[in-house]
Every structure is written in C-alpha cells, then in structure tokens.
Specification:
It comes from Carpinus fangiana. The protein is of the alpha/beta class and about 450 residues long. The protein has 17 helices and 15 strands. Helix 2 links the parallel strand 2 and strand 3.
Length: about 450
C-alpha cells in the first residue's frame, strides 16, 4: 500500500470538500499517499489547509480561474468546465507522476463525471465518491441507466411518484429538484445522466457511498449492476475539516452558557440563498419559541443586519439569539447545549446531525435536500419536515410548532429523540474498527493490491 498514490478531486463547495478530505485522511491512515485537488479558484478560497503526512494539495482549471464567466449560459459553462477540466486534469496527473509517485487511482465527486474518462484514457482505475444519499443515487440510476432508465419518459411527463423497492414512494416534490423539467437547476441534469452512463462504461463500476449499511440497506439493494461500497459517514472532526468562510470565534462561549439540550442550531449551508420574507418568518418563529438559538447567516446574505437588530430588540435581556457568519458545524452539533437543528437537509448536515444525536427540523430548498428531508421524516424518524404555504414559505407558526414538537415533552418529540440516538449509535459502530464501513474500505483497498 505504501506505493499507492490516490488523486481525489472535488468541486470547491463546502459540502464536497469536507467528506472528500475525510476520505483522504482514512486512505492515508491505511498507508496510502493522497493528493487532493480542486479548481484553481477554489483552492485559493480555502482558509486553512489540514496538515497530514502523506497529504498534498493541487489544482485543475474550470476555465474561469479568476471567477469571471463571460456568459450566464449554464450549458456553456458546464461544457467549458468539461473541456478545460479534462485538459488540465490530464496535465496534473502527468506532472504528479513525474514529480512524485505515479497516480495509481482517481476518486472523483459530484458533477465531475468527465474525470473518469480522463482516467480511463490514461489507464488509471477510478471510483465515483457519491456525496449524496444512496437513495438519491438510486433515483439517478432509475432515471438514467441505459437499460431501462425513465428519463426520456419523465422529461415529457414528470411522474406523480417514483417507487424504489423497500422505500416509501417519492412524490415529484421529494425528488432531487433538478430532475424536474421546471427546475431552475435543470441544466445540470445532463451531468447526472453522464455520471450513470460513464460508470456503465466500466466493466466493474465502483461507487463509494458516504453512508453506512444499516442506514440505507434498502436503497443499496435497488442498484444491482454496480459495485456500491459504503464507507461513511465521512465526517471530519473540527480540527481536520476546512472552511471556505471565516469562522466566528464567540459562539462556543455563548453555547457553554446555555442549559443542556436547550439551544436551537440553525444553518442552511453554504449555498442556499434565502428569501428575505422566509428569513423574517423563521426568525420570528425562533424568537416566539422562547428558546435560545444560534443561527449561521453568511455575511454576504441579505437581511443579516435586520435579523441582528430584531434579536436585540426582542430579546436583549435574555441573550436569546446569536447570529454568526460561519462556524464549525460538527463542533456545534456535538456541544451538549444543542437540542435541535433547523437545516436545509444537505447530505452532510443530515449525517452530521444524526451522528451527533441531534434531531432536525427539515427545511429543504433544492437539489437532493428534498429527498433527504423525506428520509429524515418518514424512513429514519430523526426529525420533522416543516410545511410550507402556497408561496413556498415556512411560516413563523409552523417553525415554532416544529421546534416545540421536537424539544417539548410530548410523545412525538420523545420518539424522534429515541430514533436519533439509535442511529447515532449505529453510525458510531459502522465507523469504528471492525465496523461495516471500516471493513468495506479495507476490502476496497485490498482489491487494489
């Protein structure tokens, strides 16, 4: 294993980088060398690089290194990214092979299916690291596989629901949003089709899943023509992950001043841009709950100053709310004062909340978040999905009701807390020595020898 050199590539998004880096750490602990690469601009945005013997960093180009895109046409942007990315990734692999040890294996993440073609042309084996849920991947496979994929039919006549064996029916509103032809993000749909078709070119397609057997056993069974390997949850501790935003420094002291399991942690990730009206409704619901809350509102988001003013006006004496521009989510979720997480239900946030034993109020916006929210509420029972009005807004009364249901003394909240503790225990078991995910990773590496 000492001679094996893995190249791991990822888009420069918070939810892509951290699980990829956690996998890098685990590969290194198994005796491998790892180079982590993202785009030129993305590498420059990382605030601090985790340091580990055997880990190095590199970059490839997306064609827009200065961040300036000459067009708003998403199809042109993705096409250019594929063209330039393929060229510069090839050059990177050649350079690494000349300077250090030859790259023996490529692992790529979401929206980079062309990387597998580069690897194939260079006679390097590859694997797809799926950083969405297995249920979401199974839906992509259901849509796009070349044997009986339903995309062409669904594109002209979207389904009322999609049924995967062993799981509840997924209504159209539960599907990853970009699969719907009316979605503003439908331009990336061809890339997900390319993911499936690219894997099918491989005689033994390998997909590494950021999940664990017990959590998604049924979803794993629905994809029977690919080698699916569960290696999750890939959750870096607060000392090893990296940030694309500057962390605040005052939130831990504030959390430590609050009673056990009393704080509502609110975060909608690094990409959701919330409507001002939605922000106001959530804020009023939190204030009216009377419970302390820590809310991450990025400094670039509209409404941040107004939200801070409202907190001061409504709850100055009690110090009920604290707004920060960014924080270590794992650190916050593992703090004993946190009792609930209001989340967009990105896959990282879903896993991190579960692994910390924190129940959630799900407020999905787009992408796979809608699918994850369905699983949280109906399959795992680790939270509640907040209902929206006819404008798609979670109203303040609904937010207050959901928080009270989870954090209050009622039977539903107790059931959810029991469920999340059970899944927390199973996640820990999967990730420890001898656990299913550790054993799967070990077997994956043994097959490469």
């Amino acid at each position: 294993m000492n001679s094996r050199h893995f190249l791991l590539i990822s888009l420069p998004a918070q939810g892509h980088i951290n699980p990829t880096l956690e996998l890098a750490k685990r590969l290194i602990h198994a005796g491998a060398r790892v180079t982590f690469a993202t785009t030129v601009r993305g590498l420059g945005q990382i605030k601090a690089f985790p340091s580990l013997d055997g880990l190095s960093y590199a970059s490839f180009s997306d064609g827009f290194d200065d961040g300036t895109k000459p067009t708003d046409d998403p199809n042109h942007i993705m096409s250019e990214f594929k063209r330039v990315g393929s060229q510069t990734l090839t050059n990177l692999i050649l350079r690494l092979s000349n300077e250090q040890h030859r790259v023996n294996f490529l692992i790529y993440t979401l929206l980079l299916p062309w990387a597998a073609d580069v690897a194939r042309e260079m006679a390097i084996p590859s694997a797809f690291l799926c950083i969405h849920s297995t249920a979401a991947f199974a839906i992509y496979h259901h849509y796009f596989n070349s044997q009986n994929g339903m995309h062409q039919i669904y594109n002209s006549n979207p389904p009322d629901s999609v049924q995967l064996q062993g799981l509840p029916p997924f209504a159209s509103t539960d599907l990853p949003s970009f699969l719907l032809p009316t979605s503003p993000h439908a331009s990336i749909t061809p890339t997900f089709q390319e993911h499936i078709r690219t894997l099918e070119k491989d005689a033994n397609p390998c997909v590494l899943l950021n999940t664990f057997d017990a959590l998604e056993e049924e979803a794993i069974k629905t994809v029977d023509n690919m080698n699916l390997t569960t290696i999750g949850p890939l959750i870096p501790d607060s000392s090893f992950g990296c940030d694309l935003f500057e962390r605040s420094k005052d939130y831990l002291q504030w959390l430590s001043s609050k009673p056990t399991h009393s704080v509502i942690y609110v975060s909608f990730g690094s990409m959701v841009v919330m409507q001002r009206k939605q922000m106001d409704e959530i804020l009023h619901g939190l204030v009216e709950s009377g419970r302390p809350f820590l809310w991450v509102i990025r400094s670039t988001e509209n409404g941040r100053e107004e939200a801070e003013d409202l907190i001061k006006n409504k709850s100055e004496e009690e110090e009920q709310g604290l707004i920060v521009p960014w924080c270590s989510q794992v650190e916050v979720l593992c703090h004993n004062s946190v009792g609930c997480c209001v989340t967009h239900c990105g896959w990282n946030s879903t896993l991190e909340s579960m692994a910390a034993g924190v129940p959630v109020v799900a407020c999905p916006h787009f992408s796979d978040q809608t699918t994850n929210a369905k699983l949280v509420e109906e399959v795992w029972g680790t939270g509640i999905k907040a209902r929206v009005n006819e404008e798609g807004i979670v109203e303040r009364e609904e937010m207050k009701k959901c928080v009270e249901m989870i954090m209050g003394g009622g039977g539903k909240g107790e059931e959810i807390r029991r469920n999340v503790e059970r899944w927390k225990s199973l996640a820990v078991q999967a990730g420890k020595d001898g656990g299913s995910s550790q054993e799967h990773l070990k077997l994956f590496l043994e097959k490469l020898r």
